[in-house]
Amino acid sequence: MFVCRQFDVERTPTVVMILRSKFILNSRLRILLVLLASLTPLLVFIGSSVVAVAQDGSAFTSKAQHAILMDAATGAVLFQSRADELTPPASMSKLMTLAVLFKAIKDGKIQTSDEFVMSENAWRTGGAPSRTASMFVPINTKASVDELIQGIAVQSGNDAAIAVAEGMSGTEAAFARLMTQEARRLGMTQSTFGNATGLPNPKQLMTAREIAILARHIILEYPKQYPVFAQKEFLYRKHKFYNRNPLLFINIGADGLKTGYTSEAGYGLVGSAVQEGKRLIVVVMGLENENQRRDEAAKLLNWGFRSFSTVRVFDDGEVVGHARVWGGQTMYVPLAGDGDITLSLPKFPANQRLSAEIVYKAPLKPPVKKGDNVATLKISSTTGAQAEVPLFATENVEKAGIVRQGLDSLVLMALRRLAL
To answer: How far apart are the C-alpha atoms of 145 and 115, rounded to whole Å?
Structure first.
């Protein structure tokens, strides 16, 4: 099965050219599409939801109001249900609190040995008096950044999250704005934050898809910090906390990430697990109780591991196809992936048709530099399953002389008129 990377592609007809001519695709890819067709899954799109067909032919569904299953290596979405609807994330939004902190640590702005003070506000809002999940740091007491990270990841301490926010930005409100800024930097276009904890706030909204994107970012970008999410226990002063993530205590290869609950949000979980070298990320939201969120998350992960496999279709640097360069010294620039290109698609049922196309903004004008992300390889099945892989220029293409530019301009104008 294919493993794919999803990238946003502008689809405005005037700026996007979809090339379907035979010459754009490497002949090896066309052969692989035929050979892999028998491995393609049946994914039935119903509105914004996807119902996957399991190996026994029955429809795979989830009780979660919002759900997504993602391949961590590539960002390929294997299952989704109302994954783009904004909803309160509860404590799952603490992943963004930690992502902002992890970035500051990686950039050298903060050390894990640094200490933050537990202010009266943090103590009252998220500490013992709040009767919410708390690390129980005494008021006006300092706690190290390392301790606060464990308090957030293992115990989901609201006091720890507020202490981090105030220690980094002065106020929780200022830190929440920083969280939203970081979300935009990561391509999370919908999520907004009003606090560092996930406690009820009208601004605290995320989608299942963007929670998965955030989890994937943490896994790939912060490998030194990620193991804290697999930590089953945390001893702080006289308190011994047990990780609230139930997936860590069942035998499915789970090593993260975070649970969440408020009466408004219901029960939610963002988890990740590895089996036979393959990592998946699951998000379930809006469930009725703790057992249901554990069972639905585990069911999705087990289905994903059982029903999907990975095939490498191109080696690192191997040319996939070509893009037309208008006004360049050469007419076409070769395109390749960033490293090996692998694609993930379910194994069942058999005999589905696959098609591929290279999509890029047109006109593509010089100079084009080697390594520029100029196109996307889109592979889809007749059942609706899709995979997208970014393609990069493998050569430089400089601007041509006046005569060549003029001829290409005339051809482009003619094509535009024919398209009208």
So the answer is: 6
Q: Is 113 a catalytic residue?
A: no
Reference 209, options 189, 225, 181; nearest CA is 189
Q: Which residue is listed with tokens 């994954």?
A: 83
Tokens 């249900």 correspond to: 81
- Is 22 among the catalytic positions? no
Catalytic pick among 62, 81, 93, 94:
94
| Sheet (strand 49-53) strand order | 43-46, 49-53, 59-60
Structure token digits, residue 317: 């640097």
Cα separation of 169 and 183, whole Å? Answer: 16
Q: DSSP 3-state assignment of 266?
A: strand
What is the Cβ-side half-sphere exposure of residue 108, based on CA atoms within 13 angstroms? Answer: 0
Coil, strand or helix at 368: strand
Distance of CA 246 to the CA centre of its chain: 22
Query: Which two structure tokens, joined as six digits, stand for 278?
Result: 């393959």
pLDDT, tens digit (0-9, with 9 covering 90-100), for 75-122: 888 888 999 999 999 999 999 999 999 999 999 999 999 999 999 999
Active-site residue flag, 156: yes
Which DSSP symbol is given to 71? E
Catalytic residue chosen out of the listed positions 81, 156, 191, 307:
156
Percent of the chain with pLDDT over 70: 76
Specify the pTM: 0.76
- Which domains are present in the chain? 16-44+312-419 (2.60.410.10), 90-264 (3.40.710.10)
Please identify which residue in the block is written with the tokens 């301009």.
409
Q: Which of 62, 81, 91, 93 is catalytic?
A: 91
pLDDT at 25: 47
